Amino acid sequence: MSNTKKEKLEEQLHKYHQASFNLVRDLSLDTVLKRIVRLARDQAQAEYGALAIRDDKGEIVRFITIGMTEEEESRIPDLPEGKGLLGELQNKNQIIRISNIKDDPRSFGFPENHPPMDSMLGVPILSGERIIGQIYLTNKKDAPEFTGNDARLIKTLAGYAAVAITNAQLYNNIIERDQILNQQNEDLSLINDLAQTVASSLDIKEIMSQTLTRVLAYLDIETGEIFLRDKSNKDLRLSLLRGDGFEAFSVKNVFRVGEGLVGKVAGLNKPLVSYALDTDPRIIRSSIPKAGFICLAGIPLQAQRKVVGVMTLSSKKEHQYTTRELDLLTTIGTWAGTAIENARLQQQSKRVAILEERERIGMDLHDGIIQSLYSIGLTLDLVKQIFQESPSEACEKLNVTTDAINQAITDIRSYVSDLRPRQMKANRTFSENIEQLIQEFKRNSNITVTLGDSSQEPLNLPYENAVALFHILQETLANTARHSDATKAEVELWENDGRVYVKVEDNGKGFNLDKTEISLGHGLSNMKRRTRKVGGEVEIESAPLQGTSVVAWVPKKSLC
After folding, report:
1. Could you give the angle at which helices 29-44 and 148-199 cross, rounded to 10 degrees?
2. Do 237 and 253 touch, CB atoms closer than 8 A?
3. Of 129, 118, 123, nearest to 153 (Cα)?
4. Are 300 and 447 contained in the same domain?
5. CB of 139 within 8 A of CB of 48?
């Protein structure tokens, strides 16, 4: 071999090695595939080149060509399916080198508008023992067929290509996983932020507003609705509408369970999506597609696997809901539904508490002030009868009546103290609520009250436990004012061993514990019922002329 040819060959091999080495360093799969097939075509002096990538089932998932114009490619109806010669390459780890494709018995022929091709070189791309793709070259430019040297050269290139393709696929997998993890982190952040927001609120309107507003912004959806199940559990009523097209959505505000997409979501308790609003029979508000909306999703709001409402998301833009998005929305629907149900239960609990208070006050008024006023009326009737016969006795009776009226006034003031503040203030700590209660009590009674607070704020008591302890203190102070004849009382607040304690001790006349029910009436049973409902207890110590001590405690954790 002459020095000139040797130098030219060495230069060609150096360029080939450098080009092949660069393939391995490239991590962009599409770029790698195009560079491989272009390098193979140039090195083997072929007119056309192609590269196929196959999945684990042997199906072509990528097919890159070079040599044809975009117009020529567009006229070919279908991509290769891997049959004929291409299938032979897939099924057998061997190089195919033929001079004329159409004369080979394994050939299936060319599809319509395919350019004419004669000679062919096919080389498998191996990753270990597995065939991951093939390099196809056709129409050798300077010879009637591809040579053995061409085959060896492209086989070497296929080795580089296997490494490059594997590296690029691994890199793409890492990028995809990273994107998935980032998306999952964003989803979890949304769920966490929304959960903290709705869990801290007992306002149903705020829960719905926060949920719908954040979901619409996160998914870039134009309009959303929330329907809530009414007391009959048969109807879903529109409770919140956000976004565009108010008139289109408000034409129908109530759906029966099972009616339309909203009702079917409630009946099936699973998400439903419609991408053809103008033809979908479940879309019974024709005004929605007329307003330009093309996609509508319904998400159940559930609590303890029961549907309490439905959230709908409607878009004028194409939005294909992925499995991830539907799972995310289902999770949000569960959080929102649970928060709404908790708020409803809290409202019901407050209504029950109000009814209990009314019952207690009614009984106490009947047993106390009303009976006193009735007795005053009888005394005044007697005064009228004896006034002419015994003025002195009548005056004595009038003095007694005056004292009774003054006592009734004192009792009424005690009841006023018992009624205000009736509920805890949400914007105050537990200690601040107690201080307010004591201040109200002091203004409406003649008893001096002191407060000793050694608790560590904030107490972080469950709401129902805090309310129970608050009302027990309220009830105890009311009983002190009505029954004890005390001039002073001491209130202590502390926490110990997972419990929060309140103690009220007065210097009143006390009573016989054996006659507790007679002495304190309905109030004592009310206190016991409240504490035991949240897992606490009330303890009372008293004796005639020795004052009364009431200690109540509740756990710092909820029973549920």
Report:
1. 170
2. yes
3. 123
4. no
5. yes
Cα separation, 451 vs 430, whole angstroms: 13
Measured CA to CA in angstroms, residue 537 lies from 324, 438, 540 at distances of 48, 22, 10
Three-state SS sequence of 458-514? CCCCCHHHHHHHHHHHHHHHHHHHHHCCCCEEEEEEEEECCEEEEEEEECCCCCCHH
3-state secondary structure of 178: helix
For 130, phi and psi rounded to 5 degrees?
-95, 135
Query: Residues in the chain, how many?
Result: 560
SS (H, E, C) 340-401: HHHHHHHHHHHHHHHHHHHHHHHHHHHHHHHHHHHHHHHHHHHHHHHCCCCHHHHHHHHHHH
Q: How far is Cα of residue 299 from the mean position of the Cα atoms in its chain?
A: 12
The DSSP secondary structure of 132-176, one letter per residue, reads EEEEEEEEESSSSS--HHHHHHHHHHHHHHHHHHHHHHHHHHHHH
Q: Rounded to whole angstroms, what are the CA distances from 127 to 156, 158, 336, 471?
A: 13, 10, 50, 76
The domain spanning residue 471 has which CATH number? 3.30.565.10
Lowest mean pLDDT among 38-47, 319-328, 381-390, 549-558: 381-390
Burial class (CB in 10 A: 0-12, 13-18, 19+), 29: middle
Angle at 248 between CA 246 and CA 249, to 5 degrees: 70
Q: Which of these three, 298, 320, 343, is where a domain ends? A: 343
Amino acid letter at 330?
T
Nearest to 379 by CA among 346, 412, 408: 408
* DSSP class per residue in 70-120: HHHHHHS-S---S-HHHHHHHHS-S-EEES-GGGSTT-----TTPPP---E
Residues 441 and 558 in one domain: yes
Residues 144 and 290 in one domain: no
Q: Which domain holds residue 225?
A: 199-343
Other Cβ atoms less than 10 A from the Cβ of 109: the count is 8
Most confident range (mean pLDDT) of 323-337, 474-488, 510-524 is 323-337
In a domain, 386, yes or no: no
Peptide bond preceding 458 in cis form (omega within 30 of 0): yes
Neighbours of 274 (CB within 10 A): 21
Q: Is the Cβ–Cβ distance between 483 and 511 less than 8 Å?
A: yes
For residue 32, is pLDDT > 70? yes
Task: Answer for the pair 229, 235: CB distance below 8 angstroms, yes or no.
Answer: yes
Are 302 and 447 contained in the same domain? Answer: no
> Could you tell me the pLDDT band of residue 108, with boundaries at 50, 70 and 90?
low
Q: Is the peptide bond before 462 cis (omega within 30 degrees of 0)?
A: no
Say yes or no: 157 and 206 in one domain.
no
Maximum average pLDDT range among 361-375, 404-418, 489-503: 489-503
Cα–Cα distance measured from residue 281 to residue 278, given in angstroms and rounded to the nearest whole number: 8
Is the distance from CB of 439 to CB of 408 less than 8 angstroms? Answer: no
Cα–Cα distances in angstroms (integers) from residue 283 to residues 216, 224, 241, 309, 437, in the given order: 20, 15, 17, 18, 55
